[in-house]
Structure formats: structure tokens, C-alpha cells
Amino acid sequence: MSKTAQNMDRYRVGNTSVLRRCAALGPFLACLLAGGAQAGAWEEFQARCLSPYENLAPAVFDDLEKVVPSEPRVAVSRFGAYFALTDGAVLASDPAPLRTGERLCAVHGMAHPPGAKAWVAKQLAQKLYELEEHNDDGSFALLSNLWIEPKLNVSVAFEQGGDYVVYQIVETDLES
């Protein structure tokens, strides 16, 4: 098996190594990863962007191939890059997207809103994030509460009637 195939296999849903690495995230993530299909855009976003940023770590893309998307859904600075995921999804990472001290990680792909909705409900119930914006199409933006510094801005924007989505997290230089 090639190194690329081995790396991609690490992120397949149901892979026990992923479950071991993510066990600290609790039963919610374990339930999401328990299926046997490949990881979707939400699962890729959680594993590669959301979880690392919540643990003050960089996004996970070292095992991915850089690509130049024909129609980028997430703008990145000259320091940013795009990476290919499964099923045509694209990860965007940028260490300086807006202002000094901020970094961005996003995944654009097929929408699977139940995972995102369940995550949002849990975060709001635990008061880890505050709802900043909610739109009729299901899109939303959350801002982390006092539990983490720098603050995290998580957003989900649906496209093409909800078939595609951009999951995005920005580590801001805002103070709690």
C-alpha cells in the first residue's frame, strides 16, 4: 500500500487508530466515527480542523496532496493552501487569513448536516460556544466561550440548496 493510501486510510470512519486518537473527545465523536463508510466533510473537518484547534494544535494536513481548486470556496492568503480530501472535498488551511494571530482551517464538501447539528446542540448545551448567527438555510456561526484563549469562530455555510457545505474554524485574536 502506498504512503498516500496509508495516510488516507487513517481517516476512514471506523478505523480504530482514529478512535484511539480521538477518544479524549468523548462518546459523541466516537459515535460519529463508529460507522464503516469513509469520512465525510464533517468528520474530516472535526478530525483535521476542529479538534486540533480546540486542543491548541495546528490543522492536520501533512498527509494530504496540495491542489489548486478551480473554484475555491474558501479564500486563503498567499500563505494558505488547499488539499485534496476524499469524494472531491477540499481542505483549506491558512496561518494568516485575516489579521496577525489568526489562523483558518476549512473543509468544503458534500453536506451531512446531522453530525454538525448534533455537535452544535452539544456545544450550546455545555455553554462552550455561543450562537452568533443562524440562518434559515441552516447555516450558523458560533464563537467559543471563556474555556479557550484565543477564541474560536466556527461556521457552517450551506451551498447549492444544502447539498454542499463549508465547515470553517478561525482562531481569532479576540480575548474572552
Query: How many discrete domains?
Result: 1
Question: Low-confidence parts lasting 5 or more residues at pLDDT below 50?
Answer: 1-37
Distance between the termini: 46 Å
Order of helices and strands: HHHHEEEEHEEEE
Biggest sheet overview: 8 strands, antiparallel
How would you state the average pLDDT, rounded? 76
Helix content estimate: 25-40%
Structural class: alpha+beta
Instruction: Identify the strand order in the major beta sheet.
Output: 1-2-3-4-8-7-6-5
Q: How many DSSP H or I helices?
A: 5
Q: Give the overall shape, derived from the CA principal axes.
A: globular
What is the strand tally? Answer: 8
The radius of gyration is 15 Å
β-sheet strand percentage: 25-35%
How would you summarize this macromolecular structure in one to three sentences?
This protein has 5 helices and 8 strands. It has 176 residues and is of the alpha+beta class. Strands 1-2-3-4-8-7-6-5 form an 8-stranded antiparallel β-sheet, with helices on one face.
Secondary structure blueprint with pairings:
Layout: H1 3-10, H2 16-22, H3 27-33, H4 41-54, E1 66-67, E2 81-84, E3 90-94, E4 103-110, H5 113-125, E5 129-134, E6 140-144, E7 152-159, E8 164-171
Antiparallel strand pairs: 1-2, 2-3, 3-4, 4-8, 5-6, 6-7, 7-8
